[in-house]
Every structure is written in C-alpha cells, then in structure tokens.
Amino acid sequence: MRIISRDSIYARLGQFGFRPIPEWYDEVKFGIFVHWGVFSVPAFGSEWFWWYWKIALKPEYILFMVKNYPLGFSYTDFAPDFHAQFFDPDEWADIFEASGAKYVVLTSKHHEGFTNWGSPTSWNWNSVDNGPHRDLVGDLGAAIRKRSLHYGLYHSLYEWFNPIYLSDKQSGFKTQEFVEKKAMPELYDLVNRYKPDLIWSDGDWEAPDTYWNSTGFLAWLYNDSPVKDVVVTNDRWGLGCYCKHGGYYNCADKFTPGELPNHKWEKCQSDMVYVVALGGNYLLNVGPTSDGLIAPVFEERLRGIGAWLKVNGEAIYATKPWRVQAENATVPVWYTSKSSTVYAILTSNPMQNSFKLLTPKTSNNTVVTLLGNPEPLKWAPLQTGLIVLLPDLPFTPADAWTLKLDEVA
C-alpha cells in the first residue's frame, strides 16, 4: 500500500485538493437513499429504534414495546422477522429508475451493526446467516447496474452495542481492536466485493479519524482500490471532519446553507430544486418494509418525481448554480444554468398571465420557453429583468414549472 500523509490525503478530499470529485456525481443531482435493516421490523420511529428504546429511554418507544411484545423480548429477536420474502431487486430498480434518480445508496450496515451482506466479521448478525438469508447488497447492486444507475453504499463505522467497540471507547480510544477486527475489514470487503461508486460513511463522531484509520483506508481507496478512478466519498470520517474534509459534504444532519456553498454538498431532507440551485445533490430517503416491499404511497411519489423530471429534467441534470440562486418574485423562483441558458423554476403557480423575473439580463437574441411547451413565449424587457406572458400552466405532480431562458447574460 502506498503511504500518504494525513494532510496529503485530506488535501485530496478537501476543497482545494488535487483530486476533483468524479464528474458523474456532480451531474446526476438526484439519488435514492434506502434505509433497510432490522429496524424495519418494528417499523416504529426511525432506524435509531434500538438506541431510543434502550439508551435514550424515550417513553413512546418503551410503550410501543410494552404494548406489542412480551417481557424479555430483545432487539436481536427482531432479526428472524426481517424476512424480505417479497424483495424483488429488479422491481425496486425499475421504481428508482422511473423516479429519475441517477444513483442509489443502500445501507450496508447501520449503527445497529446488522450487515446486509454476508460480512465475514459479523458472525450471524447479517442478512445471509439470519433474517432474509440472502445477499441484499449484492442483489440490489446487480439490478441497479443493469439500468446504468450508479450504486453507493452507506456504512456506519461504529456500532452502538458491539462489545469490542465499547471496550475501545472505554480506553478513551487508545486501543483500536474494533477498527482492526470489524470496521476496516468490512469497508475493504465492501469495496473489493461490490465496487461501489460512492461510500456514504457515518457513525464517526465519537472518535477522531486517527482512531478509525480513515486516512489509511482513503489512501488505498483513491490509489489502489478497484474503484479508485470513479468513487466519491462524503465527509464523515472522524470527529471534527465533517464540513471540512470530503469529496462532498453532508455536514450535520439537516445542514441547510443560506448561500451558495464553496464545496460540493448533498442533502437528505428539504426539496430537490432548492438543493440543486445551491449546487448540491438531493438524496431522497425510502424506507422499504421488512418483507421487502416499497409501499404504494412511496412508489406513487417516486414516479411523480420522475414524471416531473421527464419534462423539467434539463433544468436539473448536469446544471450549474447561476450567479443568482433565488428570487422572491410573485412566487419563489430558483435558478439553475447551462452555458448561456438559464432555468427559472417556479415553485408554485403565480395564478396570473404575466410574470416578472427581475434578475436575468436579456438581449435581442433571448428566447423564453416553458419546458413541456414547444412554442416560444412572448416576453418584453424591463429596466431590470423581463416580463413573460404565461400560457395556462399544465398539471404537474410537483406543483413547479420551468421557464427556459436562452441567450441571457
């Protein structure tokens, strides 16, 4: 393995690093985040069920268990009921493709420690030896790639109740037995076995990157791994790393920049148009059932996003932030751009025939169209911006419409 210093490897990951993120990641803009594991069996609250029940002692979680399960029932007793008997990876992949998403990130292992593949370091706490008795990571990956979508894997570095991790924690992280026997072997196994295009790291915040040996893994990943030229990673590789080091930033959960960030970022909440206008990628969470189904209400919404993107996708995919990202017009407007084309995305119906945009600088060659409507729209310049005569706006599942402005400054 090539030895690279900590500062050097973080330069590769940082804003001014010499390894730019792979072009595919900036162009795709929209992905699906699949949270699926033993926590899908109680299907109550969130994937943090075990923690909230046993450590945080949240009353609603305790009451849920009292009402629904016998005294003495443990979290590990949920695993055999994680059947995934109706899991059809091709059906999932069809739904994700129909949504317009260009990449899919699956939880290979959340903080509960249960791995969705037959990890050789997970004993029987994995989907091959327990529960579904199949390789969920591999099966979904094969289906995703048949549709030319990018495949990423979420992986939690730490595990809430793993005794080896708790022993390292008790030592003040002066020992690294968990890293050497569990966390790092799993990451190397995931990369070598499944060759992910993206690694969504998490569970790092209790210990510094020197404990996790993050730089050693990342040096291998970017120099010698089978995905070294295409892989992208986030910023959760140790205490104090997020929002500072990473191919792209997740920062804290629900990070919401108030202005255009100076580094590629991704958000798992909020709305896609806002995120893309500010240069980010939007990763939409989907939580399948324990028996392997995507609920009809989720499928309907995913296909609705896809229907909107079929009309408006050119204002999203492969775009760049414009010099102005938003405008408070009659209704909120978000801007994206490609070369001399600017897209103004109206996020609600202005309910009027004429609409003013105050930011674009027009020329005699400017052409304005409504995406999905082939005929150019009539418009007139203003002292600042322009006024557009709108047609009747068609139904859209997202309640958003895009004005395409060609040949503007």
TrEMBL record:
Which InterPro entries has this protein been placed in? FUC_metazoa-typ, Fucosidase_C, GH, Glyco_hydro_29, Glyco_hydro_29_CS, Glyco_hydro_29_N, Glyco_hydro_b
Q: Which GO terms describe its biological process?
A: fucose metabolic process; glycoside catabolic process; lipid metabolic process
UniProt xrefs under PROSITE patterns: ALPHA_L_FUCOSIDASE (PS00385)
User: In what residue span(s) does the Alpha-L-fucosidase C-terminal domain sit?
Assistant: 325-405
The compartments listed are: Lysosome
Query: Which keywords belong to this entry?
Result: Glycoprotein, Glycosidase, Hydrolase, Lipid metabolism, Lysosome, Signal
Q: Where is this site: May be important for catalysis?
A: C268
What region holds the Glycoside hydrolase family 29 N-terminal domain? 19-270, 271-314
Q: Name one GO cellular component term.
A: lysosome
**Predominant location:** other
A Gene Ontology molecular function term of the record: alpha-L-fucosidase activity
Catalytic activity reads: a neolactoside IV(2)-alpha-Fuc-nLc4Cer(d18:0) + H2O = a neolactoside nLc4Cer(d18:0) + L-fucose; an alpha-L-fucoside + H2O = L-fucose + an alcohol; a neolactoside IV(2)-alpha-Fuc-nLc4Cer(d18:1(4E)) + H2O = a neolactoside nLc4Cer(d18:1(4E)) + L-fucose
Would you identify the family this protein belongs to, as annotated? Belongs to the glycosyl hydrolase 29 family.
Q: What is this protein's function per UniProt?
A: Alpha-L-fucosidase is responsible for hydrolyzing the alpha-1,6-linked fucose joined to the reducing-end N-acetylglucosamine of the carbohydrate moieties of glycoproteins.
Provide the assembly information: Homotetramer.
Please give the name of this protein: Alpha-L-fucosidase
